[in-house]
Amino acid sequence: MVQPAWDDVEPLAVGSAPVPEYGSGSLADLLPTLAAGMAVPGMRAAMPELTAADRNCVFLIDGLGWEQLRAHPDEAPFMTSLLGSSRGGTGRPITAGYPATTATSLASVGTGLPPGAHGLPGYTVRDPDTGELMNQLRWQPWTDPRAWQPYPTVFQLADEAGVHTAQVSSPHFQNTPLTKVALSGGTFHGRLSGEDRMDLAAEQLAVGDRSLVYTYYAEVDGKGHRYGVDSDAWRGQLMYVDRLVQRLAEQLPPRSALYVTADHGMIDVPFDDRHRIDFDEDWELRAGVALLGGEGRARHVYAVPGAETDVLTVWREVLGEQFWVAGRDEAVAAGWFGPSVDERVHARIGDVVAAARDDVLIIASEREPKESAMVGNHGSMTPVEQLVPLLEVRS
């Protein structure tokens, strides 16, 4: 498939959406490439521009998109100095995957699979077995994690192959279902402070002749949602995490590679009726809709049985100049969720899928009051949300 240029996208047509670089330059391709370089069976080096290393560390900064990093050189001098190293020295970003949201992206990172395979294709999606919306970040309501995402993680496969494998993150995440299905394998080490995580990640890298270590920081995303990426609070977090990256980079043991990446970027959306379309107050958008899933910039719409065609028609008519609006089969065929979609995942995807092109949201002020009040948002396929860095430091 020929990918359309990022800056040459036509509205309306489903095929004009800039599909993520599944199979060659997406988050799902990172760990398999690193594991292949450490001779883990079954792993493929999908990004050959990355040079193999015996010890690999991935530091994922939640919410730090490529465009936000490039726009703030003063706040992030160390990471800015590494921009030329991104993606194996090509100086290019990679893509998150669709939707560009945390649960989906973390599952892509950890399993090495696109959303259509690992089965976490959105912030909230319908569980076909219950008919209820399932929040895949908070795992509510409860469902069996292994039934929902049955594939082994790259960490598990690496651990079985004799690679020293560790995750270093907040203790809060140790036993969450999302961690179990996306990031488990080896040993989890909980540390509260960012500095402690960096120090321990470096120590864990040195433990094995072959090591795979993952560490994570959340508050860049948190401040962006609450205050926006144009806020002092967000810039303060960027300054802090820049120092964390440098701290880790300066402690790398021999034969190591550090990769700094993110799960998505972020865009601030103004608080007015033109930029925030309220589903709960729009009778046209509500007509024939049984469940509204996803998030403001990446909606899954589940129709009342028999109303699928009508809902798709109305959503295209109302939103088509600002959103890529596709029926489920159209979105699957266009590769939005990856080259293929597993049978168990197919019905989790909305009857209608709406991905924002412009700086707009479909909020739901009554159903989703907290999410509807966020300043910074993400989820869609625009460069500001989709492109993430892959900065590299080697020892």
The biggest sheet amounts to: 6 strands, mixed
Strand order of the largest sheet: 6-5-7-1-8-18
- The whole-number mean of residue pLDDT values reads 96
Regions with little confidence, pLDDT below 50 for 5+ residues? 1-12
Q: Structural class given helices, strands, pairing?
A: alpha/beta
Describe the global form. Answer: globular
Number of strands: 18
Strand content: 15-25%
Radius of gyration from the alpha-carbon trace, in angstroms: 20 Å
Determine the fraction of residues in helical runs and give it as a percent range: 25-40%
Separation of the first and last Cα atoms: 38 Å
What is the count of helical runs? 18
List keywords for this structure.
single chain; 395 residues; alpha/beta; 6-stranded mixed beta sheet; 4-stranded antiparallel beta sheet; 18 helices; 32% helix; 19% strand; disordered N terminus
Structure description:
The chain has 395 residues and is α/β, with parallel strands linked by helices. It contains 18 helices and 18 strands. The protein has helices at residues 30-37, 66-70, 77-81, 86-89, 102-111, 115-118, 145-148, 154-160, 177-182, 194-207, 219-227, 232-249, 283-286, 308-319, 328-333, 343-346, 369-372, 383-386, and strands spanning 55-61, 94-95, 124-126, 133-135, 164-169, 187-190, 211-217, 256-261, 267-268, 276-278, 289-295, 298-303, 323-327, 352-356, 361-363, 376-377, 387-388, 391-394. The strands form six sheets. It has a six-stranded mixed beta sheet with strand order 6-5-7-1-8-18, with helices on both faces. Strands 11-12-14-13 form a four-stranded antiparallel beta sheet. The chain has a two-stranded antiparallel ribbon with strand order 2-17. Helix 10 (194-207) runs parallel beside helix 12 (232-249) and helix 11 (219-227) packs antiparallel against helix 12 (232-249). The radius of gyration is 20 Å and the shape is globular. It starts with 29 loop residues before the first helix and ends with a strand. The model is unreliable at 1-12 (pLDDT under 50).
